[in-house]
Amino acid sequence: MVKVGKGIGNAYSGLMEYVLRQSPRSILIRIGILAGVCWMLWYSGQTLPKKDYLPYGNTSMVFMLIEPVAGSPAETNMKYLAEYEKKIVSMEDVNRNFLVFSPRFNGGGAIIEKELAKGQRGEVKMAVKANEMGQQIFAIPGYRFAFAVQRPIFRSADKTFEVEITGPKILKLKDIAMSLIGKISGIDGVHSVRPEFKFGNPELRFMPRREDAARLDMNMQDIGDIIESLNAGKYLGEFNDRGEPIDFVFVQKKNNQRLALEDYRSLAIWTDKGLMTHLGHLADIKIDAGPARIDHIGTERAIKLRVQVRKDVPMQTVIDRVEKNVLADTRLTLNEEFGLRIGGSADELASTEKSLKNSFIYALGFIYLLLVALFSSFLRPFIVMLTVVLAVSGSFLGITWNNWYQRGNIKSILDEWNVPSAQAMADGWNWITFDILTQLGVVILAGIVVNNAILIVHQMLNNIKAGMEERQALLVSCQTRLRPIMMTVISSVFGMIPLAFGEGAGTELYRGMGTALIGGLSISTIFTLFLVPVLISLAIDMGFHTTKDDLVKDSLQSKSGFVPTSP
Questions:
Q1: Residues of the chain under the 70 pLDDT cut
Q2: Comparing C-alpha atoms, which of 398, 475, 346 is closest to residue 18?
Q3: CA distance 459 to 474
Q4: Long-range interactions of 39-45: CB distance < 8 A, separation 24+
Q5: Dihedral sign, CA of 439, 445, 446, 447?
Q6: Residue 273: exposed, middle, or buried by beta-carbon count in 10 A (0-12, 13-18, 19+)?
Q7: How many Å apart are CA 194 and CA 79, to the nearest integer?
Q8: Which CATH number fits domain 2-46+349-559: 1.25.40.10, 1.10.8.60, 1.20.200.10, 1.20.1640.10?
Q9: 10 Å Cβ neighbour count for 492?
Q10: How far is CA 454 from CA 88, 321, 472, in A?
Q11: From 185's CA, which of 176, 227, 386, 409 has a CA 20 to 30 Å away?
Q12: Taken in order 43, 45, 46, 52, is the CA torsion positive or negative?
C-alpha cells in the first residue's frame, strides 16, 4: 500500500508539474481539462434522477384497499371473498392474511414470512408478491377499485398522488373521473387508480324541463312542491287543537308504498289555469346513483383520484407521464369552469424540495462569505465553491451508476424465480430514487467538499508568504496536500459504504443518501485535484497575481479590523 501511495503521489506530482507550466501546450491541456469537466457536468445533468418523496422502506406486509359493490352488506362481501382468501393463504411464503369489512373501511392484507423482507432478495420478492396478490383481487367481478401495495415504513411515504378534478356539476365531474381512470391506469409505472369518491345507493332524480313548465306558467318552486309532496310530504301549516299543535302535511303516498318510475311520469298535475298535464312532461325522471358526499377544494366541488405508483418507479416520473399524456389532452376538451391538477403527495414533494433548495442556497452563501473573509478575495472563494457543483454532479452519477449495477442483480434474482417479463421489470427498476433523504445528502456535501479546495488554496497562500513564486507555490501545495486529501476522502467513502450497500433492516431508507455522498465525494475530489490548480493557474496567466507583500498587507489590515477584498 505504501508503494501504491508513493506511486500515485509521484504520478500526480509529475503530471501537475507538466500541466502548470507556462507554455502553449500546457495551456491547451488545461483548457482540455476544463472542457472535460464541462462535459461531465452536462452528462450528469442528463442522468438527473427523478424525484421521490420519502423512501418507501420494506416491511413484511402486503396491504389491499377493497371497494365492493355499492350498497352490499359486509356479510355478503365476506362470504363472496372467501374463495379469494383461500387463494391468498395457499400462496407460497404467505404466513397469514386478514380481511376487514365495515361501513367505514374495507380492506385486507397478507403477512409474508419475515425472512423475505430482508436484503435485496427480500425487496424484490415483496414486489413480486404484491403484484401476484393484486392480480388475484383484480379478477373478482364487481370489485373495480382494488389494489395491492407493500405498506411503507413512514405513513407519509406512501407512493401516491392525487388527480384533483374541480367544477360546478358533480355528475360531470364523475364522468370526467371515470374517463380518466382508464387512461391513467394505462400509464407505465402506475400500479392502480382508486377514486376518492363514493356513489351510494340508487336514487330518484328529477331534472325539470324549464321551457315546458314555462308554457304552463309553472316555476321551479311549483315543481319542487309537487316532488316534495310525493316523497316526504308537503308541510301546509299548523293547527292548534285545545293548546296542542298539530302539523298539517299533504301526503300523496299511502302506507309508505313505493311508486314505480312510470307512476311518477304518469302522475296527473293540474295547473292554476285548470290545465292538466303529467309530471313526466314537466321533468325528466330517472334512477341514478348519487354521491355519498360532496368534497370541495376551496369553494369548488371536487372529485379526487388517488394514483398508486409502483415501488420501483420514482413518483416524479409517473407524475410527468400523467400530466403529459393524459391531463394535458383532457384539459383541451373541458370548459373553463372545470379544472384538472395534480396534488396530494406531489404538493408535499414540491414544498419540501423548495425548502431544501432554499437551505442549500443559504448554505452556499454563508460558506462563500466565510471564505471571502478567510482569503480576503472574491476570486479564490469562487474557485473553491466550484467544487460544490462537482459534488452535486458526482452525486447524480453515483445514483445512476448504482442503479445500473443493481438492475443486473435484480434481473438475475427474477430469472431465478422464473418471473415473466423479468428483463422489462429489471430495466424499469430504480433501486435508488432522488427522495428527500437523498437530496439532504446532496445538501450535506456543500459543507464537506469545499474542505479539499480550501487545503490547496490556503497552503498555496502560505507558500507565497514564505517567499515562493505563485506558480511554484501552487505546485508545492498540490504535492503536499495530496496525501491528507486522499486519506480524508478514502476514509469517509469507506465509512459510507454500509449506507449505500448495506443489507440490514432499514438500510433501504438511507442507501440513497449514502450513494449521493460517496459519488459526490469521489468525483469532486478527483476533479478538485486538477480543476482548482488549473483555474488558479489560468487566473495567474490572465494577470490575477498574488504577491507576498499583498498577503502581508492583508494580514496587517485584517488585524486592525479592516478586511480588504482585492483579488
A1: 1-2, 5, 54-61, 63-74, 77, 80-81, 83-85, 87-89, 91-122, 133-158, 198-203, 228-243, 245-259, 261, 287-293, 312, 503-506, 547-567
A2: 475
A3: 8
A4: 40/393, 40/397, 40/523, 40/527, 41/389, 41/390, 41/393, 43/397, 44/392, 44/393, 44/394, 44/396, 44/397, 45/393, 45/396
A5: positive
A6: exposed
A7: 23
A8: 1.20.1640.10
A9: 15
A10: 61, 44, 18
A11: 409
A12: positive
Closest CA to 432 of 508, 488, 361, 380: 508
Same topology for domains 58-151 and 154-198+292-342, yes or no?
yes
Look-up: residue for cell 453515483? 398
Task: Please give the CATH topology (third level) of the domain spanning 205-287.
Answer: 3.30.2090
Quote the CA–CA distance of 113 and 105 in Å, as a whole number. 26
Are 498 and 514 within 8 A, CB to CB?
yes
Q: Which residues contact 78 (CB under 8 A, 6 or more apart)?
A: 99, 101
- pLDDT the model gives residue 104: 58
CA–CA gap between residue 521 and residue 323 (Å, rounded):
36
Burial of 344-363, coded b for 16+ CB within 10 Å and e otherwise, reads: bbbeebeebbeeeeeebeee
Length of the chain counted residue by residue: 567
Query: Which residue has 370541495 as its cell numbers?
Result: 296
Distances 216 to 210, 274, 275 between C-alpha atoms, Å: 10, 10, 8
Answer yes or no: are the C-beta atoms of 301 and 208 closer than 8 Å: no
Q: Give the C-alpha separation, 288 to 206, whole Å.
A: 10
Domain 58-151 has CATH 3.40.50.1010: no
Give the helix ranges, DSSP H, for 417-506.
Answer: 422-427, 436-465, 470-501
What is the rounded CA–CA span in Å between residue 122 and residue 320?
Answer: 29
**CA 438 – CA 395 distance, rounded (Å):** 9
Supply φ then ψ for residue 22, to 5 degrees.
Answer: -90, 80
Q: How far apart are CA 288 and CA 199, in angstroms?
A: 9
With beta carbons less than 8 A apart as the criterion, state whether 500 and 511 touch. yes
Query: pLDDT of 18-44, one tens digit each?
Result: 888 878 888 888 888 888 888 888 888
pTM over 0.85: no
> Is it true that domain 154-198+292-342 has CATH number 1.10.3720.10?
no
Closest CA to 521 of 481, 487, 478: 487
Could you give the C-alpha distances from 220 to 206, 223, 230, 231, in angstroms and in order?
A: 11, 5, 16, 17
Beta bridge partners of 373: none
Angle between helices 2-19 and 470-501 (to 10 degrees): 130
